[in-house]
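Write out structure tokens for DNA-binding protein.
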Amino acid sequence: MTLTGRVRTVLTCGGEDFLGLTAEVFDGTGAVEVCWLGRRTVPGIDTGRCLRVTGRVGVRHGHKIMFNPRYELLDEQPRTAVEESRDRV
């Protein structure tokens, strides 16, 4: 799955047995939690940043999640699905 959206939150989570950076990416219709295991930081991943992530989607605690996705930083605001459907009318 490929998702283009904006990062709403970035959190470092972990303890003795788990370490990871988690970001919530929102595309205007829904959000996917994106987690990079074993990382405290990921270059360019900041709140408000637009990006495209590609990876396998699973479900954890009732929320969609991608682990260690490929990502591309985007310079411009992505168009949401709602904006694209308005243009088709």
